[in-house]
Amino acid sequence: MHGAGNDYVLLDAREQEKDWPSLAKVMCDRHYGVGADGLLVITQSLIADIRMRMFNPDGSKAEMCGNGIRCFTKYVVERDISKMIDEQVSIETDVGILEVKPIVNNGEVERVRVNMGTPKFYACDIPVSLPNREQGFQGENLVNIPDILRNELDLTQLVVDYPLKVDRWDLKITCVSMGNPHAVAFIDDSIDNIPLEILGPSMEHHKFFPKQVNFHIVNVGRVSTLRARTWERGVGLTLACGTGAGAIHAAAYLLGFVGDTSQIDMPGGVLSITWPGVGSLIMEGPVDQVFEGEWKI
Question: Which pTM does this prediction carry?
């Protein structure tokens, strides 16, 4: 299945347990396996309607995946694995229970709206290892931050427009946690001109990020539209990133580039984000099934 080009293998594992990290490495290999950006595993939940576990192609566990949870939702709803209650499904993830709303047309889930929770901005939430806590914080740039959020946050704990040199690039990054770590760099040069296959790994494994990071380069386009490319932690170049789209909007909102809503234009498609500076961030996007098959062990 895929959501905006971010593709996944889904397994119904409600009645079995396997070595999922090892299986993810094999199945996600695009030359010797099925090929995917991740493995999604369906298991029972004691606290929600159903539980989603995700493993990256390198076998590492992902706390959360915005495009993946949409694929997961389509799968469990269309197969009656999980029933909708008040048009919603509650899904247990490693970042907590998320509420999703399938958008159904003629019995088929075409799009899914996801309550992604509240973005977090403190350096310790990302986490970020700051070499000098007296430098790099640019609280005065938070031109669009609502008073209620400004009063709740210690602005000196935010990493906004932080100057970071990575290889030959001098960047300014804004860091956001959507349950997983993100670094967003708004750049003037076209994102198409940046060799992200070179810059991405260096950023992911930079000592600034003790748990690695998902990295996004972004161009500010027409009103409320942001063009982005992504290097995902443990995955590599991807056509889209759901949690990343949320992080990009949140970072852009703090810097005054967007209002309450935005369209994040990624190589695989467009994701719609709503977040007015407080409360939960809502992400909506398309979802599609590509094929089914059997994997012989």
Answer: 0.91
Q: Which of 63, 79, 113 is the last residue of a domain?
A: 113
pLDDT classification of 136: cutoffs 50, 70, 90: very low
pLDDT tens, residue by residue, 145-173 = 666 667 777 777 888 888 999 999 999 99
Q: How many structural domains comprise the chain?
A: 2
Place of tokens 């427009």: 161
Catalytic, 124? Answer no
Q: Is 271 in the same domain as 155?
A: yes
- Roughly what angle, to the nearest 10 degrees, separates helices 66-78 and 242-254? 130
Q: Which of 28, 71, 175, 241 is catalytic?
A: 241
Query: Got the DSSP string for 238-261?
Result: ES--HHHHHHHHHHHHHTTS--SE
Q: Is 4 left (phi over 0), alpha (psi -120 to 50) or beta?
A: left
Residue 28: active-site member: no
- CA neighbor of 62 nearest in space, from 184, 202, 208, 178: 178
In this structure, the answer to whether residues 134 and 223 fall within a common structural domain is yes
Exactly one of 28, 65, 71, 175 is catalytic; name it. Answer: 65
Q: Which residue has the tokens 């994102």?
A: 191
The CATH number assigned to the domain holding 101 equals 3.10.310.10
**Most confident listed range (122-126, 161-165, 269-273):** 269-273
